[in-house]
Amino acid sequence: MSKFPCQDGEPCNRCGGCCHIRENFRMDVQDEQSVKQKVYARTRVLYLYPMNRYTISLSNEEKQRLERLAKERGLKLSILPKKVIYDAVGDKAFVWDWFVDHEVCPFLKGDNECTIYEHRPEICRMFPEVKNEQLFEIQQFVKDIPAADVPYAELIKRASNALQRSGVLV
Fold it and tell me: Is residue 170 part of a domain?
């Protein structure tokens, strides 16, 4: 469990720091490719985008809820696949979770006000503590999916095509 950097056990001070959701880091392309290949070998999870692009994770239900809220409010919202599980044998891809593809949460307005507070994602509800219990769930889900012995770039291409065939925009 980790704390948000602005917190020291105190209640929210409405700084908006947690709503600036994109990390500002860069990784060498070869290092990132190596890390992603190792993650795939262990978990069958693919990351389609550069790691510095990822933000908060959303479940399928949260993705649908936020898209509906954005449409109702006339907000532009981009949500893309975050963790993609790819079965090379069956040539099928499954989106485990999604990410909000914005620097700052599009639902943050004015004086650091969350305009969807009652409908905010689980990760926001957990503030200031974040738990990540997905690894065990993912390991159970992929236990019968063998790792494909092909270059990572080819896996990304195949998984992207499989997602597009199933109607997922990547």
Answer: no
